[in-house]
Amino acid sequence: MTAATEAVGDRPAPPPEDLDRPPRSGPRPWRSRLYRWDVRYSPYVFVAPFFLFFSAFGIFPLLYTGWASLHRVELYAPDQLEWVGLHNYARLLGDDFFWNALRNTFTIGVLSTVPQLLMALGLAHLLHYRLRAASFWRVALLTPYATSVAAATLVFVLLYGRDYGMVNWALEAVGAGPVDWQSSTWSSQIAVSSIVIWRWTGYNALIYLAAMQAVPDELYESAALDGASRAQQFRHVTVPALRPTILFTVVVSTIGATQLFGEPLLFGGAGGQKGGASHQFQTLGLYLYEQGWFNFHLGRASAVAWTMFLILLLIGAVNLLIARGMRKSR
Amino acid sequence: MRAGPVTYAVLALFTAGSLFPLVWTAVTASRDNARLARTPPPFRFGDRLLTNLGTAWSEAHMGLALFNTVLVAGAVALGTVLFATTAGFAFAKLRFRFRTALLLTTVGTMMVPPQLSVVPLFMVVAELHWTNQLQSVVLPTLVSAFGVFFMRQYLVEALPTELVEAARVDGASSLRVLWHVVFPVARPAMAVLGMLSFVQAWNDFFWPIIALTQENPTVQVALTGLGRGYVPDQAVIMAGALLGTLPLLLAFTLFGRQIVGGIMQGAVKG
Question: Terminus of chain A with fewer CB atoms < 10 Å: N or C?
Answer without folding.
Answer: C
